[in-house]
Known about the structure:
The chain is an alpha+beta fold. The protein has a single domain, classed as Nuclear Transport Factor 2, Chain: A (Roll). About 35% of the residues lie in helices and about 40% in strands. It contains four helices and six strands, in the order H-H-E-E-H-E-E-E-E-H. A six-stranded mixed beta sheet has the order 2-1-6-5-4-3, with helices on both faces. Strand 1 and strand 2 form a beta hairpin. The longest helix has 17 residues, at about 5-20. It is globular, with a radius of gyration of 15 Å. It starts with a helix and ends with a helix.
Amino acid sequence: MAETETGTLIERYLAAFNAGDTDAMLDCLHEDVAHDINQGGREIGKEKFRWFNAEMTRHYDERLADIVVMVAEGGVRAAAEFTVHGKYLATAEGLPAANGQSYTLPAGIFFEIDDGLISRVTTYYNLQDWIAQVSKEG
């Protein structure tokens, strides 16, 4: 896949995230997508990704800004760096209590592309920074 096509695919995926359109996000993913959860495990497959995304939507309202997409030569790997602007809606297990706290933090995603679709999504953000932000609001 050419670099420009990969960049367009990643931009489409991130725009779908910002629109809250899970189906459009899934349309960008390979059937056997590997999803590396921030400071967590790896899940395989679109259905697990759909479930994960539904859980995230229940707990958080997030929008990405300041997005920069970088594509490696050949278009097989890419990365996106951005700022997450969010609101903590419902308490997630093992995390501080939610009461609508706002947060802003830098984050990134690494991608692999296979057959014109995203075959790996690896997300990273600083969980300790997020916990500190949501813990100081009352």
